[in-house]
Amino acid sequence: MRSLIRPAIQSLLLSDLEKELHPAYRAQQVADWLYRQRVPSFEAMTNLPQQLRTKLTEKFAFEQFEQVRVLGSKDTTQKFLWRLRDGNLVESVLIPASPALYGTRSDRRTICVSTQVGCAYGCKFCASGLEGWTRNLHASEIVQQLIAAESASGENIDNVVFMGMGEPLANFDNLMRAIAIINAPWGLGIGARHITISTSGLAPQIRQLAQNPLQVRLAVSLHGATDEVRERIMPVNRKYNVATLLDACDYYATRKKQRITFEYILINGMNDSDEQARELAKHCARVGAKVNLIPYNTVHGLEWSRPPRVRQERFHSILSDRHIDATLRREKGHDIDAACGQLRLQTVRSDRAAVADSISAS
Ligand code: SAH
Ligand code: SF4
């Protein structure tokens, strides 16, 4: 299903703006207003002739979010829920110090960004998949999450992870367009090495991404080291099994000369056995990958839980003993439901309950 809302000017690249605006230096002026000055409307672009401002207003929408909720506070993890122009809700999480894994310093601010409203992949443990997929986000809606979070928090973001709601590689074109804007010197100017795409394992798109010269980082959500285990928690494994996925990862790592990261949520009794750890170690050795172990965050309405700390550590040590670079995340924001999709789900469900209440009351 295509989104019915009009694309906004913030979905355009500088080269697109140059085609729209004459003389060409107007394009740089508009980019400056959007990404340096961060003005809220075309009207505020005061060095453009009035006629041009009117033309732009008629031709393009202007991306804007309404802040619905914010959880957490400065210096902690902050979670934002935004209402898009068509009423849909998405969330972004601002994390004070990013995991060392992504090669960043402790004074950096990382934002975890959503790429779709909902998610079609239905991983059994994940809040984002629970309500299904609604639509892809436009490039402008991906970029705006950074701008809105900086404005709401007063922080400067220098690291971006596509680990919010949705499957980034299933919205490939809009994702790449957004990354181009986030990375560009005329845009937000964040280095490609500070941008990480997380995927549930869409093998063909991983190969496609490998063709792109940008050195963005890749994280692959593995969560199971054999088909038997992975299939139980991630339906996508029936389409791209572990062997197919590893081939694509190997291709990416070789072609990009880059170490990828396997994300591995530890779920009690599901994927946390010694055998899974040993298999995982083999995969890492083959692809030259490192591992980010994430103790499962409880999702309201799902029965899964995280293994006891000793089990988490045992799993970690099996990897370390085999010289695999593995981090056991003491994740931030557990207290405010930082796992992706949870804030939106709560709000969508409580809105729905409120609507149901008001209907039954009337
Ligand atoms: N669709 C992409 C990106 C979004 S999910 C993907 O699946 O990779 C981003 C990360 O959050 C993934 O590694 C995902 O598995 C993890 N995640 C989802 N629900 C979680 C939960 N309840 N606890 C811990 N991590 C979770
Ligand atoms: Fe979608 Fe990723 Fe959640 Fe799976 S883990 S349902 S792919 S957002």
Summarize the amount of helix as a percent range: 25-40%
Largest sheet features: 10 strands, mixed
Number of domains: 2
> Can you tell me the overall shape?
elongated
- Extract low-pLDDT stretches: 98-104, 332-339, 352-362
Give me the CATH fold name of the largest domain: TIM Barrel
Task: Estimate what percentage of residues fall within beta strands.
Answer: 15-25%
Cα-to-Cα separation, first versus last residue: 34 Å
* Estimated structural class: alpha/beta
Based on the structure, what is the oligomeric state of the protein chains?
Answer: single chain
Question: Helical region count?
Answer: 12
By CATH's scheme, which homologous superfamily of the largest domain applies? Aldolase class I
Q: What bound compounds does this protein have?
A: S-adenosyl-L-homocysteine, iron/sulfur cluster
The pLDDT mean sits at 89
The CATH architecture of the largest domain:
Alpha-Beta Barrel
Count every beta strand, where a strand is a DSSP E run of 2 or more residues.
12
How would you sum up this structure, described in words?
With 362 residues, the chain is an alpha/beta fold. It has twelve helices and twelve strands. The protein has a ten-stranded mixed β-sheet with strand order 1-2-3-4-7-8-9-10-11-12, with helices on both faces. The chain has a two-stranded antiparallel sheet with strand order 5-6. β2 (78-83) and β3 form a beta hairpin. It starts with 13 loop residues before the first helix and ends with a helix. The structure holds S-adenosyl-L-homocysteine (SAH) and iron/sulfur cluster. The site of iron/sulfur cluster (SF4) has 12 residues, from α4. Iron/sulfur cluster binds at residues 119, 121-123, 126, 128-129, 166-167, 200, 221, 340.
